[in-house]
Amino acid sequence: MPDLKVFTFSADWELPSTGPFALKLLKWLELAGIPFRQQFEDNPAKGPKGKNPWIELGGERIGDTEIIIELLAKRNGFDIDAGLSPEQRALSHAVRRMLEEHFHQVLEWELFVHPEGIAWVRQMAETMVPRPLAGTAASLFAGRFKRQLHARGIARHSDEIVAAKGKADIDAVEALLGEKAFIVADRPAMADVAAYGLLMPMAKWPMRTPVADYLRSRPRLMGYLERMAGAKAEQRLAA
Fold first, then answer.
1. Last residue of a domain, one of 50, 76, 102
2. Same domain, residue pair 15 and 96
3. Do residues 155 and 107 lie in contact, with contact meaning Cβ atoms separated by under 8 Å?
4. Whose CB among 106, 110, 118, 129 lies 3.0–4.6 Å from 166's, allowing a Cys bridge?
5. Which CA distances in Å does 116 have to 112, 119, 199?
């Protein structure tokens, strides 16, 4: 039994977790060939940094996927970007930052501000609190995210501007991918792990939201995400 325990949001949308950073971490662990136990926990306040996911390792709780991956990479001697040139590493870093710092805001906007997203939040709330309280709980939860997104800036824009910003990020990823199998190299790099985590929820969720619909209209990107979903450690090591 592995001593690494990974706490994530619950599975849904045919994905092992609905959390984008949980998906990123799970895919990285899969590519690294590191055994772990996944445990669902939908209350991020239980995590060491009030965020989801987090891990337990040797009795210590550790949060933040970037910190977790850096720790486990050193512990296991695994560098997903090994062999990349300085320029490729820089590109991988830039793509990851774009998706995790900007596109993530668009994802949260569609999930917690767009009416289709809020309807799903209410459904989720009904599984966590008594049904008569679900509407109130969903409003409070979505309202907290909307305030955060307003403070970060993106929720100050019109719906059309937010959608345009998200579509521009998708266009950038698609242009960088081109006809290649992966974004940076001939096998998955950190940019691909981040792209899988941040794009896959929108590709799979059933809600009709503008940026998610746009992503699903791009067959090259959808094929790329399915390729990432099937990527395994042995495939990466053989590349």
1. 76
2. no
3. no
4. 106
5. 9, 5, 18
What angle is formed at CA 205 by the lines to CA 199 and CA 210, rounded to 5 degrees?
70
Tokens, residue 34:
């590191």
Contact 211, 106 (CB under 8 A): yes
- Pair 142, 209 in one domain: yes
CA-CA-CA-CA torsion sign (64, 65, 66, 67): positive
Tracing tokens 């450690």 back to the chain, one arrives at: 233
Residue 15 phi/psi, 5-degree rounding, is -120, 155
Give me 176's structure tokens: 């960088």
pLDDT tens by residue, 9-32: 999 999 999 999 999 999 999 999
Residues with Cβ within 8 Å of 1's Cβ and at least 6 positions away in sequence, in order, are 37
* H/E run at residue 221: helix 219-229
Where do the DSSP E strands lie in the chain?
Answer: 4-8, 37-40, 54-57, 60-63
pLDDT of residue 65 exceeding 60, the answer is: yes
Q: Which of 92, 96, 104 is nearest to 66 (CA)?
A: 96
Rounded to whole angstroms, what are the CA distances from 35 to 13, 86, 91, 193? 24, 30, 29, 17
Residues 60 and 138 in one domain: no
On whether the CB atoms of residues 189 and 115 are closer than 8 A, the answer is no
In this structure, what token pair is assigned to residue 12? 């849904």
